[in-house]
Design brief:
The protein has helices at 3-25, 28-45, 55-83, 94-111, 115-126, 131-138, 142-170. With 171 residues, the protein is mainly alpha-helical. It is globular. 19% of the residues are buried.
C-alpha cells in the first residue's frame, strides 16, 4: 500500500479505533498506544488494501487483541507492584474522576452481558456503526446483530432498574 493510501486509512479509522480501544482498556494513553501499534503492524505488513476483505474489521480485530495484551500486561505490572509494596495508584484529576466513575458504571453493566451483546452495543451506541457494518465486522447476519442489540439493551435496562431498586431500599 502506498503512503497516501495509508494516510487516508489512518484518518478514516483512527478516531473510531481509539474509541473502541478506550472502551476496552479505559485509559487514554494505553488506548492511543494500542491504536498506534495496530497502525504500525498494518503498515509493516505492506499488503495492498485490496488484499483485505474488510480493512476496518481487520483493524478492529487487531485493536481488540492488542487491548487484551495491554490489559494482561497492566495486570502483571500491578501484581508486581503490589508484591513489592509499591504505590499502584496514580493521582487523579477531579474532572476525570466523575467521568471515569460513569464509564466504569456503564462498563460494569456492559461486562455483565455476553461478549457479542456488549461488542454489538458498543459499536452501535458508542461508535455509531450501522447494523450492516456491525454484521460485517462481527461476521453475523444483520438480523442477528439487531437481536443482540435488542437483548443487550433490555438486559442493561433490567440490571439498571434492579440496581436502582436496591439503592432505594438501602436508603
Amino acid at each position: 500500500m502506498s503512503s497516501t493510501e495509508f494516510e487516508i486509512l489512518v484518518k478514516e479509522l483512527n478516531e473510531s479505533l481509539y474509541r473502541f480501544a478506550f472502551f476496552k482498556v479505559r485509559r487514554e494513553d494505553i488506548a492511543q498506544d494500542v491504536v498506534q501499534e495496530c497502525m504500525v503492524k498494518l503498515w509493516n505488513e505492506n499488503k495492498p488494501l485490496k488484499h483485505y476483505l474488510n480493512v476496518k474489521a481487520y483493524c478492529i480485530t487487531l485493536v481488540k487483541n492488542k487491548c487484551i495484551d495491554a490489559l494482561r500486561a497492566e495486570t502483571t505490572r500491578r501484581n508486581y507492584e503490589l508484591q513489592n509494596n509499591q504505590n499502584v495508584f496514580e493521582p487523579n484529576v477531579e474532572d476525570q474522576l466523575e467521568r471515569e466513575e460513569k464509564l466504569k458504571l456503564m462498563d460494569f453493566y456492559l461486562n455483565q452481558l455476553n461478549e457479542n451483546q456488549a461488542t454489538a452495543l458498543r459499536l452501535r451506541d458508542f461508535e455509531g456503526y450501522s447494523y450492516s457494518e456491525i454484521a460485517e465486522l462481527m461476521s453475523q447476519t444483520e438480523a442477528n446483530v439487531k437481536v443482540l442489540i435488542f437483548r443487550g439493551r433490555n438486559a442493561l435496562i433490567q440490571r439498571i432498574k434492579k440496581q436502582d431498586g436496591l439503592r432505594s431500599i438501602a436508603y
